[in-house]
Protein: Cyclopropane-fatty-acyl-phospholipid synthase family protein
Amino acid sequence: MADAALRLTTVAEELLGFPLPVRVRAWDGSESGPPGAPVLVVRHRRALRRLLWRPGELGLARAWVAGEIDVEGDLYAALDLLSGIIWEREEDLAPAVHPVRDPRLRTAARALLRIGGALPPPPPPPEEVRRRSGPLHTRRRDRQAISHHYDVGNGFYEQVLGPSMVYSCAYWSDGGTLEEAQRDKLDLVCRKLALQQGDRLLDVGCGWGSLAMHAAREYGAQVTGITLSREQAAYARKRIAEAGLTDRIEIRVQDYRDVRDGPYDAIASIGMAEHVGQVRYLEYAEQLLTLLRPGGRLLNHQIARRPERNEADYRLDPFIDRYVFPDGELAPLGRTVATLELAGFEVRDVESIREHYALTLRRWVANLEADWRRAVRHSSPGRARVWRLYMAACALAFEHSKIGVNQVLAVRTPHSGDSGLPLRARDWR
Structure:
């Protein structure tokens, strides 16, 4: 095939109705598109067959993970230029799978068939989670989802996250490092919870133990951390033992629904509620309420999406659902606050730190790219490609306010009405 790149850009531009904003390089070495723009490299025509059978985001994601397409140049610039195309609602280009009414789509499908060939679709890359069935957010299904995301090798996360081993949004100041920003976030959480010597803290979704260690070491708290990831738990216990904090911290492999040893003085849920799901969220909030003493505080740190008119579906987009966070869900901030209050909490403070997550993600991507071979050695080529695309795309989503992240401080206010907060509550600053 001669000049495949020109044929591809012609098909894309006829379908879109405007010039393709990136340059295309095809498997035959041909190039087409605006000079100086980021280059979308189509390494194999299999990528086109993936798009024919699964048009839109999932087809592109499979080609990316398999290494059949790539970006040469600034990944963020390329994703920014393509975001209006890639992340749009999926349109069907495969008449054999679903009927297509738009004649432009039929024309594009025929052209892609001629360029890419009409062979059956390639199997999905092995990193993809198979389509699940049955009820969402059962204990078994949640364990499987958490294992897919977190049990990919602690060495991989050490490289991406850095020494802090904190896998949530950092709290930045001008000129600070990632480690300083993560330390400041952990300290902000502890101060919002007003932790004191001897307080019992429940860390729900404790990850690799970083918040538990900070709360025990700096505030003298007695911490119980729970996670569904056995690899995280083993890593956290080792860190805690090396730091001499085993008398202050207990790490359990345990579902939040099975915690029975309240009351706690404070509960932290940092980047965990996205895994709970709307079908379980009220149950989750009610469970945390019962585990708090009257006057105890909850700090819920959670990613949120923009509200939509149709609020029936909170599921993440197909790429993230299949490759990153199986069964993950993002709710609007208002729904989260309303559910916490419905459960019996009094919400006292909400802080949006959206821009902080964009900065955090860019640092994680830089850590991943700094030693690509090591990242592949600790996981797989496909897994490393998944994380690079996922984190870069999410950084742009935060920067463009497509999604946000918020810290919600809530109290189990006693019957007396005394919340325990000072009149000027934000003295934690």
